[in-house]
Design brief:
single chain; 16 helices; mainly alpha
Length: 339
């Protein structure tokens, strides 16, 4: 049980960091899809930059190991586009859904329901989708390419890390905002992920999307298959992790008197009106698309973009580009002001 408590606490810390910077809010994530709010991308760039440097150090000291996802081209490209599209429609990602649900966002709960269905459907279809996900180039990362020359690896990892940090700072200067919560959250996310990587802690990266098909398969009784066997262990870990994040967000929201049950957020009302039925439909559909895309790619914002980016993994960085493309293309088209 001690391990379960540890996972729960780590998830709680994750929830508090995300909540602190407002990265879970619908208006922030949907705003990123329309390039109206760059909080998300700045935080991710900072987290990857700091994390790449920090992770290379603790792995070099023998305190942690790499957990690179395979570069499955079709999966990360197609899955990234689908995932980004779902993220724009929903306004949340797999890891922020339970945090916003803990704060009282009803559309986040609806998105979770859609995500569970998306995960369950993916389990049923995965035997027929393998041809679509290939080719598999293996676990390619900076370390796999230059790891035999440690001096080169550390120098390049540090240079890339600094580049990402400077890119985040430059983007913030263009935004001309005095808010500094994003870079504090980025650093804290990098530190938290590095802690999770440690052999004495979880010895794995942070992740979120695997919990959806895991829980859906368990609820739907579709556990007697190879895919569930594959995701059972990480899915269980992530479910506890996200529950910790949700509970932490709930406690803080109540203590700060910010807990509020709401379905329609200001940005949705601005572009789509205040009809509950429309928001319910798109929240559910967005959740379905989001998780189906994440499982097609084999990861999400937490497992691929953040954790994979920190490891400078080729597949994860390519996934990030396709997610951003799907996010912006969908956001620009979907959030047009309607009469």
């Amino acid at each position: 049980m001690g391990n379960i408590y540890l996972i729960f606490v780590l998830g709680g810390l994750f929830g508090l960091i995300i909540q602190y910077a407002g990265l879970n809010r619908y208006d922030v994530i949907s705003g990123q899809s329309g390039l109206k709010d760059n909080t998300v991308i700045k935080t991710i760039l900072m987290a990857i930059g700091v994390g790449a440097i920090l992770l290379s150090v603790i792995i070099g000291l023998g305190w942690a190991s790499f957990h690179v996802k395979p570069f499955v081209l079709g999966g990360v490209a197609l899955g990234g586009l689908i995932f980004g599209s779902g993220m724009a429609l929903l306004g949340y990602c797999p890891g922020t859904l339970p945090i916003s649900a803990g704060e009282g966002s009803l559309d986040a709960w609806i998105g979770i329901a859609g995500g569970l269905l998306g995960g369950w459907v993916y389990t049923l279809l995965v035997p027929h989708l393998q041809w679509l996900r290939g080719p598999d180039f293996g676990k390619i990362s900076l370390h796999s390419m230059v790891g035999d020359i440690p001096e080169v690896y550390y120098a390049v990892a540090a240079a890339i890390g600094v580049f990402f940090i400077l890119l985040a700072v430059t983007l913030n200067k263009r935004d001309n905002t005095s808010d500094r919560k994003w870079w504090i959250a980025g650093i804290l996310l990098a530190v938290l992920n590095a802690i999770v990587f440690l052999h004495g802690m979880a010895n794995r990266p942070i992740g979120a999307s695997t919990s959806y098909p895991y829980l859906a398969d368990w609820l739907g009784g579709t556990t007697d298959n190879a895919y569930f066997d594959k995701i059972q262990k990480p899915g269980h870990w992530e479910m506890i992790f996200l529950f910790g994040a949700m509970l932490a967000a709930f406690v803080v929201a109540v203590l700060r008197k910010r807990f509020r049950l709401r379905l329609i957020h200001s940005r949705w009302e601005k572009y789509k009106g205040n009809r509950p039925g429309k928001r319910i439909f798109w929240a559910f559909a967005g959740g379905f698309i989001l998780i189906f895309g994440a499982r097609t790619a084999g990861g999400c914002t937490s497992g691929h973009i953040l954790s994979g980016g920190m490891q400078l993994a080729a597949g994860s960085l390519v996934f990030t580009l396709f997610v951003f493309a799907g996010l912006v293309l969908t956001g620009k088209g979907f959030y047009r002001k309607e009469k």
